[in-house]
Specification:
The chain is an alpha/beta fold and 359 residues long. Helices cover 26% and strands 30% of the residues. Strands 12-15-14-13-16-17 form a six-stranded antiparallel β-barrel. The protein is globular. The termini are far apart.
Length: 359
Amino acid sequence: MKKRVVVGMSGGVDSSVAAYLLKEEGYEVIGVTMQIWQDEDEQTMQSNGGCCGLSAVEDARRVAQQLDIPYYVMNFKQDFRRKVIDYFVDEYQEGRTPNPCIACNRYVKWESLLQRSLEIGADYIATGHYARVAQLENGRYTIANSVTAEKDQTYALYNLTQEQLSRTLMPVGNYRKDEIRGIARSIGLRIANKPDSQDICFVPDGDYAAFLEDYTGQPSVHGSFVTADGTVLGEHKGITHYTIGQRRGLGIPAGRRVFVTEIRPQSNEVVVGANEDLFRTVVHADHLNFMSIPDLTEEREVIAKIRYNHKGAKARVRKIGDDLVECTFYEKQRAMTPGQALVLYEKEHVLGGGTIIRG
């Protein structure tokens, strides 16, 4: 009897080829697009594209027809609003810089979609992520690097649970991006050359502060730019406009290049300083999730990433609380940003990770 797999189809080339590859492997494939965009206005939805717009549904449906697989659109608007957008807004208002894709992966693309898929008799869910699911000798599941470092997406997947991983297939992780596009062209998919989505899907223009004001109905509260010792340098537009390491758009006549080094939501201050002030060796993280091990019981040497496009650097990590790790890099790293993920790797797989609380 064929195993049944639900493939999350965004209308892009990666998830489309994932569906094709799994069908070729002999799975019973069902295509699903997750409806998550909040705006009911059709013109707005159409213009947003990415994984949220109507064009995504149209492209995915067309691919499903071509592959001759069933296709459905499932409504996850409430889950997405509660677990992703509300989290995104809360984090920015607390002076942190969130990663909504990590929250979406953990709580919507996996938790909600997996539950719905199991209810319709699926054995697995699958996505077009450039990563691989691996089961280690100790029996635990983890995320392993894709074959191409250029498109590796393991960083955004560190928070998945063992149950979720045991039910997950990621066929695209065995290919390079050019190979995936080549497969799409070879089977005549119209989306073979469709550009990758780059922006956060619910903020397509990248103006996070404007989105936050519109979503909450609350205008940004101006405050002070200050130095580390409290010297006031000018007025900022509201803490949601800034992130650690930012230089552009500050508008401070300081006579030298300055960067955001800290955000203080309690006093509504944005601290600025020199570029060298951004470099640290120690970072702390909580909200931990371990993959390749049940828990961190001893200090370990790892490769640690502090943001999605960080190449990773050697470090030692140890647990200093029930839900707290301290990670010490051998070389200073720039702009360790509260709210971003600290993801830990051993060899080619994810050891675990957490949310940065301070650098």
